[in-house]
Specification:
Blueprint: E1 2-9, E2 16-26, E3 29-34, H1 48-51, E4 55-61, H2 79-92, E5 99-103, H3 105-115, E6 121-125, H4 133-152, H5 155-162, H6 165-172, H7 184-195, H8 200-207, E7 221-226, H9 236-243, E8 248-252, H10 259-262, H11 264-274
Parallel strand pairs: 3-4, 3-5, 5-6, 6-7, 7-8
Antiparallel strand pairs: 1-2, 2-4
Length: 276
């Protein structure tokens, strides 16, 4: 069941209230899960059955995505604001230095949380921030096209496409290597999440100048990349390894950009291995 917590954060215009939706399940050491741009916390549903027996899992709708409201006026969507928001979110839940796993935008945020020593371990699945300019242009153009497509399609068409494997591939093959495995209900839900994401454009706008260039010393870090990632190409994982020499670089065979659905058992094992 999705819950919501509200808390105050500082901004250049004074204190502002932020609300974040999340789902919490399982027991053990806390594990924060962060999705990518235009997604929602349900992106992690395929791996929850394997994670929950060993971890207190907190899957977040990032501000402006899923059912979390957008950030208030005066709080931008840049890393300098969103990372403290996530730190304040954990404090509001009474969680101190959780493990964290993130995908795409969530992977970049996970690494930033690690760099700030706000977490105990980091698993970054195809994290943003290790691109060249041309690779970033390609990724952003693809994301904009996905968003425009989701906005242009009437709901009856989205629902109709989701009922067949070919239709689900048409809707989601950019991010999944095995789109036919996603349920019709999940495909409809995530397409709606993409079209309704209040933070989409502002997040892309601040992402134009984003690059992750710092090491993350002093805690376990795993960077994992799908061998069939069509959005952030897998050679970016090599750059991540050069930037974070102590990180474990893992290949996810047969997985696309959002690997949790393509191979949930493998992804869960990588996350648990990093957080042990």
């Amino acid at each position: 069941m999705t819950s919501t917590v509200s808390f105050s954060v500082d901004s250049p215009r004074g204190s502002r209230t932020v609300s974040v939706a999340y789902e919490r399940t399982g027991s053990g050491e806390s594990l924060l899960l962060l999705h990518g741009i235009g997604r929602h916390h349900q992106a992690w549903d395929p791996v929850l059955p394997a994670l929950a027996p060993e971890r207190d899992v907190i899957a977040v709708d990032l501000p402006g995505f899923g059912v979390s409201p957008g950030l208030p006026d005066g709080v931008p969507y840049d890393l300098g604001s969103v990372v403290p928001v996530l730190g304040a979110f954990c404090e509001a839940l009474g969680v101190e230095r959780p493990h964290v796993a993130g995908n795409s935008l969530g992977g970049l945020l996970a690494l930033e949380l690690g760099r700030e020593k706000l977490v105990r371990s980091v698993t970054a699945l195809s994290p943003a921030g290790f691109w060249t300019q041309s690779e970033r242009h390609y990724a952003f153009a693809t994301l904009r096209a996905m968003r425009q497509g989701a906005l242009a399609m009437p709901m009856p068409l989205i629902e109709g496409l989701s009922r067949s494997a070919a239709g689900r591939a048409a809707l989601t093959s950019t991010i999944y290597a095995r789109p036919g495995r996603r349920s019709p209900e999940a495909v409809v839900s995530e397409t709606v999440a993409l079209r309704e994401a209040a933070g989409f454009h502002e997040t892309l706008a601040v992402g134009r100048s984003v690059a992750f260039t710092d090491d993350v010393p002093g805690l376990p870090v795993t960077v994992a990349w799908g061998s069939r990632d069509r959005l952030l190409l897998r050679r970016q994982g090599i750059r991540a390894k050069h930037t974070i020499p102590g990180a474990r670089l893992v290949r996810l065979p047969g997985c696309g950009h959002v690997p949790m659905n393509d191979d949930p058992a493998l992804v869960a094992r990588v996350i648990l291995d990093t957080s042990r």
